[in-house]
Amino acid sequence: MKNEARRGLLKNGFLVGLGSFFGVTFKRLAMAKSAFKATPAEVEGPFYPVKLPRDQDYDLTHITGRTGVAQGSSILIAGRVMDTEGWAIEGARVEIWQANAAGRYLHPKDANPAKIDPDFQGFAAVLTDVSGAFLFKTVFPGAYPASLSWVRPPHIHFKITHKRYATLITQMYFPDHPLNADDLLLGAKSPEEQALMIARKEASSGTLTKYKHTIVLENRW
Ligand SMILES: [Fe+2]
């Protein structure tokens, strides 16, 4: 299984720069305990859904049974889940939840007066494929006030679970956003940790902006 997953990674070109690295020094890499840094954990925050929505599919911009489309700029988030040795993790459950484009969560305790978008799903859960890949279509989340003096930059909450790995709760940020620099949560991380939590912007795919994000889970052993 591990070899299949590795081939998947290489075939998909996800770790192009590491392909030869794997090929040449695989033995050494396999012995290394932490070839890759684990994605830093972050607080779950107060807005994990009280009740999970019926529609939890990868597309948060459309709710089954409704004709409308979520407001805001639609984006794609294409990611991978791997472990600190570089193995793709198949079958990881990746949950995301986020504010809508106006900065409002689908949560009864969200005091932000911004409007709820009835066409925004707010939450999704998918399983990674054999190469550890996952994909979400969503909207660019709005910034929102966390206190009178603190505005949270756009971010997406992630929870990744897999029976062989410790559960990771974290947040993904967007590159070059002006609010990143003043965020109290992101600012509490080291520059190296911050880099692991900020997605990479890819060329637009049609009308959609695409972001790539790698999530690394700590090996249990
Ligand atoms: Fe949040």
From TrEMBL:
Keyword Signal part of the UniProt annotation: no
Alphabetical keyword list: Dioxygenase, Oxidoreductase
Pfam families to which the protein is assigned, alphabetical: Dioxygenase_C
Domain Intradiol ring-cleavage dioxygenases: residue ranges: 77-105
Signal peptide (UniProt feature, chain positions): none
GO molecular function: ferric iron binding; protocatechuate 3,4-dioxygenase activity
Family, per entry: Belongs to the intradiol ring-cleavage dioxygenase family.
Protein's name in the database: Intradiol ring-cleavage dioxygenase
Lineage start: Bacteria, Pseudomonadati, Pseudomonadota, Betaproteobacteria, Nitrosomonadales
